C-alpha cells in the first residue's frame, strides 16, 4: 500500500526529492517482497523433494532388509565341489554367524 503523499503534487523541490525517495523505497520493497516469495517457494519445493527422497530411501532400506538373507555362500561365480570339507566348514560358519546375528537382533 502506497502512501498518500505520493498522490499529491509537490509544492517545492524538497518535496519532490522526498517523493522520489519514497517512490524508490517502495520499488525496493516490492523487489525484496518478490525475492522473499521466491525464496519461500524454493524452500517449500526443496522440503517436498527432501520428504519424498527420505521416504524413498526408507523404502529402499526396508526392501534391502527384507531381501537380505545373511549373505551368499557362493557369490564369486566360481564352481565348487559341494561335498568338500572346506565348503562344509564354510556352510557351518555361515549358519553360526546367521544365528548370532538373529540372537543379536532379538536382544535389541
If you had to describe this structure to a student in words, what would you say it looks like?
72% of the residues lie in helices and 0% in strands. It is rod-shaped and about 105 Å long. The protein is mostly helical and 108 residues long. The protein starts with 12 loop residues before the first helix and ends with a helix.
How are the SSEs placed, and which strands pair?
Elements lengths: L12 H55 L17 H23 L1
Largest β sheet strand count, sense and barrel closure = none
If you compute it from the alpha carbons, what radius of gyration comes out, rounded to the nearest whole angstrom? Answer: 35 Å
Q: What's the β-strand tally? A: 0
**Number of helices, counting only DSSP H or I runs of 4 residues or more:** 2
Report mean pLDDT, rounded to a whole number: 84
Q: Give helix % range.
A: over 70%
Based on Cα principal axes, name the global outline: rod-shaped
**N-to-C SSE series?**
HH
Low-confidence stretches: none
Fill in the keyword field for this structure.
108 residues, rod-shaped, 2 helices, mainly alpha
Short description:
The protein is mostly helical and 108 residues long.
Amino acid at each position: 500500500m502506497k502512501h498518500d503523499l505520493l498522490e499529491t503534487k509537490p509544492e517545492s523541490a524538497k518535496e519532490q526529492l522526498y517523493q522520489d525517495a519514497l517512490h524508490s523505497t517502495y520499488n525496493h520493497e516490492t523487489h525484496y517482497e518478490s525475492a522473499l516469495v521466491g525464496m519461500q517457494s524454493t524452500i517449500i519445493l526443496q522440503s517436498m523433494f527432501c520428504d519424498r527422497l527420505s521416504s524413498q530411501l526408507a523404502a529402499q532400506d526396508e526392501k534391502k532388509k527384507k531381501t537380505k538373507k545373511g549373505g551368499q555362500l557362493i557369490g564369486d561365480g566360481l564352481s565348487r565341489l559341494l561335498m568338500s570339507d572346506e565348503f562344509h566348514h564354510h556352510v557351518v560358519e555361515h549358519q553360526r554367524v546367521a544365528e548370532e546375528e538373529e540372537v543379536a537382533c532379538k536382544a535389541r
